[in-house]
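Hi there,

I know you've been waiting on this one. I reran it after we fixed the sequence typo, so this is the corrected version. Both the input and the resulting structure follow.
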Amino acid sequence: MKGKCPFGGDRIGGAVGTPPALSDWYPNRLKVELLHQNGPQANPLGEDFDYKAAFERLDFEALKRDIKSFLTTSVAWWPSDYGNYGPQMIRMAWHAAGTYRIADGRGGAGEALQRFAPINSWWDNGNTDKSRRLLWPIKQKYGNALSWGDLMVLTGNCALEIMGFPTYGFGGGRHDAWEADNATYWGPEIWDPQDVKSFDSMVTRDKRWRGKNGDADYDLENPLAASHQALIYVNPEGPYANGDPMGSARDIRTTFTRMAMNDEETVALIAGGHAFGKSHGMVTADEVGPPPEIAPMEAMGLGWHNPKGTGFAQYTMTNGIEGSWTPNPTQWDNAYLENLFKYDWVQTKSPAGASQWMPSDPNAPKTPDAHVPGQMNSLMMMTSDIALKVDPDYRKVCEKFLNDFDAFTLAFSKAWYKLTHRDMGPKERYLGPEVTIEDDLLWQDPIPPRDFDLIDAGDIVTLKRDIMATGLSVSDLAFTAFSAASTYRDSDKRGGANGGRLALAPQKDWTINRRTVPVVAALRQVADAFNGKPGGKKVSLADLIVLGGCAAVEKALADGGHHVTVPFTPGRVDTTQELTDVEMFEWLKPVVDGFRNFVADDFATISTRVSPEELFLDKAYLLSLTAPEWVALVGGLRALGANHDGSQHGIFTDRAGVLSNDFFINLTSTDLEWRKTDEKGMTFTLVDRESGEAKFSATRCDLVFGSNQQLRSVAEVYASSDGEGRFVKDFVKVWNKVMMLDRYDVKTH
């Protein structure tokens, strides 16, 4: 009919991301697209923007003066407690950094992900949206020379300083993300953020714990660190808001350990952080509006609207607990620990109905109201505070700090520095005049400074020849180099070949690295022979491991008819066992490493929710690979025969050690048929359709490149008649990328 709307039905247009989406139809599909999130298209600054140069040009002292001046003001739409925004900003910085977890290095303040869902709308982050909005005038003034990640942490430092606390230092250099993080697994619980209104409302939703609190098998699912969904650490009211201090202590130890903190650091952070400010719980949770991500449009990104009274100041609602820990909440002192141990504490309820504690002694000190002049209130403790008093080990630390305030001050200073910088990686990434360079802190994975001259091009040629003369195979050399470099994870910039830690505990003892031990021993002899020559030049074992891999790849290329020089950048330095935190490096040990076709023997018992190929994808993500890089790297490693145990799985060629595209040709062949060889479908055999002859064997980490359509589309490029040249070029490029991932001594980011 003339003039009729061309759109029929109730729907106009196809809104991007509107369900049902691909993930709704196929929830178990391998989400390869996660490798491409936060890409350059999302970044308004462009790939050429040099944040380091911009940051170093700003007036750092003027910036700090502006922040400190702001902290002691108050604006009408969100007044400061006690006329000081300091405690509020400490909480913002702490919660930004406190998402870090040691298991996979994800979280932390490094990308300012507190701005995006889901973190921006977690119940535990209530009203941090106000803190960031209050900082907008400063961010606006300094523009792109100051990232949100750096501003939040620096503001936390400035807040501590104006209240009399000596901070340990500050390093800038955090690069903001420009979109939400869709790759991090925050827990198995499915929850409606509008329905989750308080800590105790999450009780029935929790699925992350094994056993019950206090049982021998009580443990938290890896890689998670927070005790419940939408929390940063633990429920301050105790496990499931049950008010049990001893149970809270167990949760605290589990979560803080997962966040790379020992008992002393844990007590220092809790006692130090609670020396300032107050908690807010004047309105019941069910009256507070939705979080920022689902708030009404007119809220302009601010959530948790409180309809009671003014909705802020003395009516503020955050976690439901009301009150301050100390009589002087804007001054650094030891009153928190003094009062915790001097008085007995009895359980009571906040105005919002949350469980909290007050002194039983009516003569105990009072704390001034944050907004009502002349009003004095009872001190408050949370169940998670009482936990430090009842747990024997935490109590010992508390008593140490009670008797030595200077020791407490130093411990909190260093623990805060670790908390806010743990995810930044090597100190080469730190920017600004307050970088603490005189100390090598063990958690920074220190590497000694180079005290010898670098090898030059002629030395590199000589060393390659010496390496190949050892009789080490192409496969063993390539495997060893990759094993050293691939410990790197881009989440917290840890690991990598620099430092030569492949030769040290714990890495040298990992099952997956057994094949490297004789290779490292032979390479050490080459290094000793070279370093014994007169002159100032030396080669580190770390450099020689990588150079051996590069020499092996060059030989594999030449044997395949491709004469290519593989890039090599010297300058790595060997560290020592004393400078290696064995416990923290143990977290880098892989459960699944599809690149080396490794699946731990106990994989089935420790990982019930994910498949090997999903953890393989996660490993590719932590190496910052794109899908084409992932495919090219695996195809090359299979051609080189770089399986951890020397098995033939995925070696789809009769000329292993030669860099060819045979892996892709046989993977995509229509003349061959794959059959699983075990009930669970973990291993497979490739059979010729006509003869029935078994040709090759494979694991799930091999066949995923043929079964997943996105990965297969890349594999088909390399399997084509004109694909080998492209594959060789792409493999050399991604090989060099992996070898250089940790070289922040020569990189700008």
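Quick highlight: The mean pLDDT is 94.

Best,
R. S.
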